[in-house]
Amino acid sequence: MSEDTDPKKSPSKPVLFKSLLSEGNKEKALELSETILEESRSLEDRNFEEEAWIRMERALLGAIEQEKVGNELRWCVDRLASVNPGSPLHGLALLNLASWHRNSNERMMALVTLADISSDAGHPVDVIGLSRLESGRILSLIGDLEPAMRHLWMAMRGLSSSDMPAEAVVCAMEWIDIALDDVDPDSPTMDKRIVDAKPREKPGVTMVSSNPADIKEAVELILSNALKDVSGEKRDDIGLILDASETLEETQWRKAIEERINEIQDSRLIEVLQS
């Protein structure tokens, strides 16, 4: 049994720090982070990875001046790239840096940063999936829908295979929201589009039709999750299922929802189902 899980021993400071954050105790977590940072810089046993991790956490928690956050996150990425490239923590650092770029309205820099997360670099599947989800969202925002759909599809597949079903459903929803605008049975499947994709010099404004088979796959993923509990006053997932049912004339999806109408709380859906 490791030190972190042995009930006879006090939890390590990093574990305690994470626990404080999960409890919402930001003030005590920041106090503890100063100790962790100081210890990680010990000349006798310097821990570069732990130093990068705690500096990243402190930057995200507002422990440093706002104008210095970007440089601090970049330092963390560079340090982790040198001591443990391709690790989950390195991938997380890249995700955080990309998020900072996006929030700073630097979408191209965010895309460049997210592109550094890959299987070739050794990053885990779940981190790659999250990076593709974020890339898809950014590309969708700028109207570059063809690569946006590819990224969202890859994210859906990756997160489905890495025990992140909720996040996979989110990917499927965002993909379908684009896909239903243009459906063509002669359109290449997403798998083929991904295989045939080639690098481009720069993003553009692109449109692409979707294949009904892909829509069915995405709907089935959303439906299997939605039917676990159809309550809730805002159920966009069920709304997308009904839209897809009408577009593809797949009545079984609507029927599956209609059978649970007494449990549905979203007034918009009730109105549609009763019409």
Model description:
- The chain has 275 residues and is mainly alpha-helical.
- Residues 1-5 have low confidence and may be disordered.
- The protein has helices at 13-22, 26-40, 48-60, 69-83, 88-103, 107-115, 125-141, 145-160, 165-179, 190-196, 212-226, 236-248, 251-258, 267-274.
- The chain starts with 12 loop residues before the first helix and ends with a helix.
- Helix 3 (48-60) runs antiparallel to helix 4 (69-83).
Number of helices: 14
Q: What oligomeric state do these chains adopt? A: single chain
How many DSSP-defined strands? 0
Mean pLDDT: 91
Topology diagram in text:
Elements: H1 13-22, H2 26-40, H3 48-60, H4 69-83, H5 88-103, H6 107-115, H7 125-141, H8 145-160, H9 165-179, H10 190-196, H11 212-226, H12 236-248, H13 251-258, H14 267-274
Helix pairs in contact: 1-2, 2-3, 3-4, 4-5, 5-6, 5-7, 6-7, 7-8, 8-9, 8-10, 9-11, 11-12, 12-13
